[in-house]
Amino acid sequence: MEKYYISSRSLTESQRMQRALERAGIRSAVVKLPAGLSEGGCGYALSLTRRIEDAVETLKRANIKLNRIYVTSGEGVFREVMY
Amino acid sequence: MIYLDNAATTLKKPPEVIRRVKEAVSCMSSPGRGAHQWAAEAAETLYRCREKAAELFGVTEPERVVVTFNATHGLNIAVRSLVKPGDRVLISGYEHNAVLRPLHALGAKVEVFQSELFEPGNCLLAFESRLTEDTKLVVCNHISNVFGFVQPVQAIARVCRERGIPLVIDASQSAGVEKISFSELQAAFIAMPGHKALYGPQGTGILLCGCDDPVPLLYGGTGSDSKPVTMPEYLPDRLEAGTHNMPGLAGLEAGLDFVLEKGTERISAYEKKLMGYLTESMRRIGKTELYASEKTAHQAAVLSFNIPGMEPETVAEELSKRGIAVRAGLHCAPLAHETAGTAGTVRASLSVFTSRREVNTFLNAVEDIAGRHRLS
Fold it and tell me: Using the beta-carbon criterion (under 8 Å), do B225 and A43 form an inter-chain contact?
């Protein structure tokens, strides 16, 4: 199953994104961004397995600036995706 | 013990505050410092604390709710962010040393707008008359910690917005008892403690940050953006270096819950009614110099007084012997005394937990002390 990571600058920003998705009925989890994807080190992301398009739209509507979005099929390989 | 020193710290806390503090000690580590459940519990608690403060104070972005150790910490960040040596800073005549000392340390040129107690109209006029083209910053407390004078911060904020001058509000005495809308006031910073009328523990505070390029007071680990040797540019991380006081913040979250549930208006109405009763009774008793407003809108539940011929500290000591806790002296605000023309006062301050019965006991004690002093 594919897993999406919506990266963010900080833990607080990830939490704000999670709340916005929660209100829209989209389940997600705040996780540490894998080290290889975090330019500055110690990055955060929101991970979700479904409804990525809905999630992106919801975050845009909530005026939350989106950073990078990655997808992985679970073998340690991440690919950046654009929405 | 009858506790009437709530302007310093509210001693009686809602039971949930105490429960959450105890719980946090054993089940929370540090937000953003791990992927385990204890770090997650801490992160969730801290974010809820931000969300609730944002709800109470009309902040649309929870990341603008910065947690601090107290209001002084927040005011130091605010002043350091906005003041350079030699800058002209206009402050009210009722400011606390938490404002004066950081300004002095930074070498600011401090100007004061002084006005009579409980005269918000005159206060606004004094403020406007001292405002000049080169005023770089205005700092004003919402409520005087010495006299409970409710200063016209809404009007002052409006003038500052019109003139494009940043405003810092010290909400130490008003957070939890007066309406504060960050989005309406549009202040650069609003600083407040967690341990007064937000009913959290000591060692907690909140800084609402409207300024987009604040200067950190502390530098260190934030659990984010760790490779650069500079602090992150974004809030709240930029201003929150080091491990958070999670037991304190868990308690503060419960305190915010308490205030949100009761409602600031109801809390204020209760305290002002009791304050009205206290003031009227003190007037009836006589024997004291009272610094009180005729209008409840102009004074919060903080009452300064003196017994002629007695030092404030002696009065406080006598009250303490009778099991009543008040504060005496300058209350860390010598400027407020200079403005009001006093050299120190006894201060009785109420909270939502203060009862009429406790006020009556206090009144009897004051009457007794003043009466004995007259006889001696």
Answer: yes
Place of tokens 């910490």: B73
Q: What whole-number percentage of chain A has pLDDT above 90?
A: 75
From 3.40.630.10, 3.40.50.300, 3.50.50.60, 3.90.1150.10, which CATH number describes the B2-10+263-375 domain?
3.90.1150.10
Owning domain of residue A27 = 3-81
B155 and B341 Cβ atoms separated by less than 8 Å: no
Instruction: Compute CA distances B136 → B125, B315, B320, whole Å.
Output: 19, 42, 44
pTM: 0.96
Average predicted confidence (pLDDT) for chain B: 97
- Structure-token pair, residue B166: 């940043």
Tell me what ipTM this predicted complex has: 0.91
Q: pLDDT per residue over B244-281, tens digit each?
A: 999 999 999 999 999 999 999 999 999 999 999 999 99
- The answer to whether domain B15-262 has CATH 3.40.50.1100 is no
Q: Say yes or no for a CB contact (<8 Å) between B32 and A11.
A: yes
CB atoms under 10 Å from CB of B213, counted, come to 8
**Contact criterion met (CB < 8 Å) for B63 and A32:** no
Which residues in chain B are closer than 8 Å to A15, comparing Cβ atoms? 43-44, 47, 62
pLDDT in tens, B75-106: 999 999 999 999 999 999 999 999 999 999 99
